[in-house]
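Here is the promised in-class demo. Please do not try to memorize the tokens; focus on the logic of going from shape to residues.
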């Protein structure tokens, strides 16, 4: 792996293929705030180093953003991209994973737009150095990360060349009337008591489903302090920020770049354990997400993966392989079309 700025980039918990960089973000009401950028660079042969890397994504950077109560740990996902020549980066947002500090409320934020600072710091670090000039940017987000990146891409047109969303949290998983009833209550609570906790409703079944679906050929070592079996506490201020994001999506946004949305074929309600939870999205209502996805841009492809979990890349073997195949088909088609458009467009 080619290294630069060795004083800043340090070894990452994922091992030799990965490095991490701490991104200072100043302070908030709880004190110092940082984000953490993880990178995996493509391996290049002597021939590629001497005569150029002709792989389809050799001119592409990927920025991944994780979901709620989560962090980046998926080595194979990084290798999918680096194997095609791309530089892969993953951002642990403030108060998550590698970026979580003892004085902080895990995962808390009062406005999703505050993550613009995290993303800007990540992009600046990715673009440092002459090798970053003129590269394409692919945004890749899971669940809450998909919501964050969708909103960011719409507010910052022309920066991302493509957006890929893995079960993006674009709509709240409650009936419309219930959502409309609770939203004013959440808004009031967020205004006066933003750190009030909502009741814990996660019974740990999604974590169990991932464990049951684990693929021995694709082992993952998860830090339960950063990704607990039951999700982190939900606070009123954070929930208000999420509902505000959903309202923006419902009104319609315009991501100018092509978008690919990967979803499970169906949902399952996790009120009691059953093997069915290992073959469905037990977090979101996927049909609602599919409909909401049509409001985020003019070019949206929706891929439904039979037997997939909420994170389609953590599914059982067959569904996981199908998810990677579908992603590969879409990425290869997009990259070829995008390169052809660049070659034929007037200077």
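The designed amino acids, position by position:
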């Amino acid at each position: 792996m080619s290294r630069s700025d060795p004083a800043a980039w340090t070894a990452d918990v994922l091992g030799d293929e990965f490095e991490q960089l701490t991104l200072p973000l100043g302070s908030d009401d709880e004190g110092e705030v940082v984000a953490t950028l993880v990178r995996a660079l493509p391996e290049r042969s002597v021939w590629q180093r001497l005569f150029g890397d002709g792989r389809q994504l050799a001119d592409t950077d990927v920025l991944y953003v994780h979901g709620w109560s989560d962090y980046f740990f998926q080595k194979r996902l990084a290798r999918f991209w680096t194997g095609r020549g791309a530089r892969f980066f993953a951002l642990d947002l403030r108060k998550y994973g590698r970026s979580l500090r003892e004085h902080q409320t895990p995962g808390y934020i009062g406005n999703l737009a505050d993550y613009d600072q995290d993303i800007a710091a990540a992009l600046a670090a990715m673009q440092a150095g002459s090798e970053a000039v003129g590269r394409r940017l692919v945004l890749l987000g899971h669940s809450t990360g998909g919501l964050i990146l969708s909103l960011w891409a719409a507010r910052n047109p022309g920066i991302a060349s493509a957006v890929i969303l893995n079960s993006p949290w674009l709509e709240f998983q409650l009936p419309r009337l219930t959502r409309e009833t609770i939203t004013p209550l959440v808004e009031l609570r967020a205004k006066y008591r933003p750190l009030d906790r909502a009741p814990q409703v996660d019974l740990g079944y999604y974590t169990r489903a991932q464990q049951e679906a684990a693929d021995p050929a694709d082992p993952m070592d998860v830090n339960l302090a950063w990704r607990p079996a039951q999700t982190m506490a939900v606070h009123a201020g954070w929930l208000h920020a999420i509902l505000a994001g959903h309202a923006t999506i419902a009104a319609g946004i315009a991501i100018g770049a092509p978008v690919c949305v990967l979803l499970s074929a169906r949902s399952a309600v996790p009120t009691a354990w059953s093997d069915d939870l290992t073959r469905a999205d037990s977090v979101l209502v996927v049909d609602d997400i599919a409909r909401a996805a049509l409001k985020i841009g003019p070019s949206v492809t929706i891929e439904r993966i039979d037997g997939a979990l909420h994170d389609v890349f953590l599914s059982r073997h067959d569904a996981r392989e199908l998810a990677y195949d579908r992603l590969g088909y879409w990425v290869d088609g997009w990259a070829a079309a995008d390169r052809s458009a660049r070659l034929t467009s007037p200077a």
